[in-house]
Design goal:
7 strands, binds NADP nicotinamide-adenine-dinucleotide phosphate, 277 residues, Rossmann fold
């Protein structure tokens, strides 16, 4: 799957997660990659340097994906520099504010209760409308804002690839307290199906890549060895995803190999969640 001559924007790529892995993978296949980040310039620069050290082409641009002005400026900068934009990978669902309200402590298993106490996940009975709406709004605002900005460029080219990161929580509870996240991602999945329908005639495809648990740096603290073993043993392929597993599927949807696929929801789970018992 070569991406020679293509220009790719990856949002939320300036970290150590799926976005950074996608940026590296697309660059390794020959794309010119724009590494978008929000605040951590040093991390984003490290991603760029790792791509360049491997012989690829990349540079970083700061923009908060829910800020329309910043996103438009970023896309203008890309078009001024390269004259085109072929691939947009949206990995970041905007701000995920800590959910205020009573703690989840004591509910569910100890491991999930500890996570909830730290990141603020809540069961429905302890969730305020404001917290729920903030999560759903952030997810959709990010996808809406970046898509609005890139579609005119892709329409002029009569070609473009839109790829969005969802989560298996969108298909049902895989852990307690994820109702806001699951509903936000489910809304994203449906948004992308409508995009695929409306943008197909413009030559643009839109697909969703949806992991179950991925071992990224940011969430290592919530994945002690015993928990990882439990998830791996419930996964038919016998291990937990690495960011590179997800990045390869993103590259497929960015490439000509998937040219006739649009509106697809692609789980990258190793089979986790297939069993009903
Ligand atoms: N990790 C998992 O287990 C997992 C599982 C299923 C689905 N997913 C989904 O996969 C996607 C990526 O997850 P991840 O865990 O790899 O992410 P991550 O490591 O938390 O992403 C970090 C990156 O996102 C950037 N970012 C955050 N808010 C931003 C904003 N408003 N605008 C622009 N950039 C922003 C950060 O930039 P700064 O540091 O500069 O702010 C950083 O570059 C998410 O949509 C997530 O829901 C993840």
């Amino acid at each position: 799957m070569t991406l020679e001559g293509k220009v790719a924007l990856v949002t939320g790529a300036g970290g150590q997660g799926i976005g950074a892995a996608a940026a590296r993978d697309l660059a390794a296949r020959g794309a010119q990659v724009v590494v978008n980040y929000r605040s951590n310039q040093q991390r984003a620069q490290e991603v760029v340097e790792s791509i360049q050290a491997a012989g690829g082409n990349a540079h970083a641009i700061q923009a908060d994906v829910i800020d329309e002005g910043q996103v438009l400026r970023m896309v203008e900068e890309i078009v001024e520099r390269y004259g085109r934009l072929d691939i947009m990978v949206s990995t970041k669902g905007g701000h995920v504010p800590p959910i205020a309200g009573p703690r989840f402590a004591g509910k569910g298993e100890g491991h999930f209760a500890a996570i909830a106490a730290r990141v603020g996940t809540r069961p429905f009975t302890e969730l305020s409308w404001e917290a729920f709406a903030a999560r759903v709004n952030g997810e959709l605002q990010a996808a809406f804002t970046i898509t609005k900005a890139v579609v005119p460029v892709m329409e002029r080219q009569h070609a473009g690839r839109l790829i969005y990161l969802s989560s298996e929580h969108s298909r049902g509870p895989a852990a307690p307290g994820m109702i806001a996240n699951g509903a936000a991602k489910a809304a994203l999945n449906t948004f992308v199906v409508y995009l695929a329908h409306e943008l197909g005639p413009l030559g643009i495809t839109a697909n969703v890549v949806s992991p179950a648990m991925v071992q990224v740096q940011a969430t290592r603290w919530m994945q002690p060895a015993a928990f990882l073993e439990r998830v791996a043993s419930a996964t038919p392929l016998g291990r937990i995803a690495q960011p590179e597993d997800v990045a390869r599927v993103i590259a497929f949807f960015a490439s000509d190999d998937s040219a006739f696929m649009t509106g697809v929801y692609a789980p990258v789970t190793g089979g986790f969640g297939l069993a009903r018992l």
